[in-house]
Amino acid sequence: MSSSVLTAPPETAAATPDVQVVAPGPRPGPARRPPVVRLPVSLVVLLGALTAVPSLSLDFYLPGLPDIQRETGATQAVAQLTITGCLVGFALGLLVAGPLSDAYGRRRPLLVGIGVYTAATLACAFAPTIESLIALRMLQGAAGAFGMVTGSAIVRDRATGAAAARLFAVLMLANGAAPILGPVLGGQLLLLTNWRGLFVVLAVVGTLTFVASLRRLPETLPLRNRRTASVADARRSFAGLLRDRVYVGYTLGRALGAAALLAYVSASPFVFQGIYGLSAQQFSLVFGANSAGLIFMGQVGGRLVHRVGPARLLLAGMTVCVAGSVWLVLALLVHAPLALVLPGVFAVVSGMGLVFPNSTALGLSRHGSNAGAATALMGMVQFGLQAVASPLTGLGSSTSALPMAVVVLVLDVAGLVALLILTRERTPVAGRPDLLMQLA
């Protein structure tokens, strides 16, 4: 297996545009500039596709969720378990994917995971019952977790701090295409096929991702930096992460914001199509427009992070989410029309464009030696909270979006509180980010 660093070979680098990020290393003096790592754009897009597997798996079939409910005779809450099952699978898969990625390198575990993901996705298209679909979605999620871990860990292998935050923001351009293009394409494809055909298309995407990873993805974790693949070592890694209160703060803030976002995502087909009467195609356009805000904010943050700092951008993003959720609750309480509801939704979604890259970069910057496990634990907490939040929105009235809005508000406020309280170092540690100290 190749142990090459994340750079293009000479003949490729000459023909392929590069994305530049600052490599990790000691803080430069006044006359020095940190070294620059050149990442081919094609490789950045591939990493974005790998980290986008969760979004694509969750969002692509959303326009067909009401059809799944009707065909299987399930209730709304049970139909939403196809989302929950995928999230639980992601959380469990991350428990395995992170330590394996740190022990065997980035490539081999990824290729196995994407292969299983593709097979499970194809099986979803032929699921005979809602119960079997939920089980297959769980397997799909567990296998897809390897893509998320690998993409994020490779970024941490090559950059840290503000440089990593900027690269995560660049990846969000590819990653953000999934929630935009997914529901839009899914809604349009429903004019030609049914919800089962959507899973066939997802299986084709999985196959293409596997081939691209096989051909283009380098190994970025040298043998000397790999950890043992024992259960005891994995337990020690996770225990060490959980003892780092500041890391836990970034992880919880990110996860609670993501859970609020998923609460909206899982309820949105029923809210927009069932309550406000939009068609599957209209819903996909509204969903895509909101997701465009997430991409836009991510790219703005990527341009500002070296001047403003990831901590300030993280707090700004979480504040935007809280403001949007407050707007959403107030608009629904006064029975405002859809045009006045949508700005609140837009803020809830777009604010996460600042939260995702900066919380990830700040959290992983503290644990470079076990980035795979640190990425896995971040994702596991996120998907675990999302799995709980998703069905909660289906327990309220089917004629009101207020239950969804309340769940979103509670989670966003909790995320902001977790960031402000847990990420403050009692005794500042050199080289480690402290949110409140950076804001001072």
What does this structure look like?
- This protein has a two-stranded antiparallel ribbon.
- The protein is built from 19 helices and two strands.
- The protein has a single domain (39-218, 230-425, 432-439), classed as Growth Hormone, Chain: A (Up-down Bundle), CATH 1.20.1250.
- Mean pLDDT is 79; it is low at 1-37 and 427-431.
- With 440 residues, the protein is mainly alpha-helical.
- It has helices at residues 10-15, 41-51, 53-59, 65-72, 76-79, 81-104, 107-124, 130-158, 161-175, 177-189, 195-216, 231-243, 245-275, 280-308, 310-333, 338-364, 371-392, 402-422, 435-439; strands at residues 18-22, 36-40.
- It starts with 9 loop residues before the first helix and ends with a helix.
Count of helical stretches: 19
Strand residues, percent: under 5%
The span between the termini is: 47 Å
- Main beta-sheet strand count, sense and barrel state: 2 strands, antiparallel
SSE string: HEEHHHHHHHHHHHHHHHHHH
CATH homologous superfamily designation:
MFS general substrate transporter like domains
Percent helix among the residues? over 70%
CATH architectural designation:
Up-down Bundle
Per DSSP E runs of 2 or more residues, the count of β-strands stands at 2
Trace the largest sheet across and list its strands.
1-2
The pLDDT mean sits at 79
Overall radius of gyration: 21 Å
Please state the structural category.
mainly alpha
Low-confidence residue ranges: 1-37, 427-431
